[in-house]
């Protein structure tokens, strides 16, 4: 039988196929308690259908609590509760149902529900771990990474500002030196040219 907890849980989230498998049920039953909640929510309907199918598929041959509960449901129009319970029992007792079998089979269905609940909660825990806890951890890691990258960006921006200042300072120094070199170079060339003319003039 498919993992019932996983099947129900899949109505809410996508459940990984690796979730634990449910043990095969031994019995099933249909609740005779009137549903006091008149809700029309889809999830409530899914749960109700799940439990009805669970109990129906686990019903053993012969009359037991499952058939008894169905008979009680069919007799809801009878106002007297005691009459319903005794009449339903009388109708099934001719088919071999006795009080001991009725109570023991009801206990088996309770055990089935307990096993189903355990399977369901195991699936819930697994889904929470995969869909919530692990994703929160991933979020925390990404937030830390963002903080690291933000710090790195801030550091790089500061380094860029320092480099820009150094570039401007170096450009100014180079421009000053270039200007000084050019000025003195021209001055020296002019001096030599003048000296050459004077040498030609003064020295025979």
Please provide a brief summary of the model:
The chain has about 200 residues and is mostly helical. The protein has five helices and no strands.
Keywords:
coiled coil
Could you please describe the fold and organization of this structure?
The protein has one domain. Helices cover 74% and strands 0% of the residues. About 10% of the residues have low confidence. Keywords: Coiled coil.
How does the helix and strand content classify structurally? Answer: mainly alpha
Which stretches of 5+ consecutive residues score pLDDT under 50? Answer: 17-37
Shape: rod-shaped
**Which series of helices and strands comes N to C?**
HHHHH
Indicate the radius of gyration in whole angstroms. Answer: 45 Å
* Overall number of strands: 0
Coiled coil: 125-173
Keywords: Coiled coil
Helices and strands in order, then pairings?
Elements: H1 4-9, H2 42-58, H3 65-74, H4 81-93, H5 99-202
Keywords: Coiled coil
Coiled coil: 125-173
């Amino acid at each position: 039988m498919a993992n019932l907890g996983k099947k129900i849980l899949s109505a809410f989230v996508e459940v990984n196929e690796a979730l634990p498998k449910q043990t095969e049920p031994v019995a099933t039953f249909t609740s005779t308690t009137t549903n006091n909640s008149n809700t029309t929510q889809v999830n409530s309907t899914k749960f109700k259908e799940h439990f009805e199918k669970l109990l129906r598929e686990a019903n053993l041959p012969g009359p037991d609590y499952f058939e008894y509960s169905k008979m009680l449901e069919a007799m809801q129009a009878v106002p007297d509760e005691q009459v319903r319970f005794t009449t339903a029992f009388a109708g099934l007792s001719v088919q071999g149902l006795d009080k001991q079998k009725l109570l023991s089979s009801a206990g088996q269905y309770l055990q089935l529900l307990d096993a189903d609940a355990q399977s369901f909660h195991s699936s819930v825990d697994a889904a929470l771990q995969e869909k919530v806890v692990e994703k929160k951890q991933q979020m925390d890691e990404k937030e830390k990474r963002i903080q690291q990258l933000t710090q790195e960006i801030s550091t790089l921006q500061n380094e860029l500002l320092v480099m820009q200042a150094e570039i401007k300072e170096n450009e100014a120094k180079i421009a000053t030196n270039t200007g000084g070199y050019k000025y003195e170079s021209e001055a020296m060339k002019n001096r030599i040219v003048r000296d050459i003319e004077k040498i030609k003039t003064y020295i025979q």
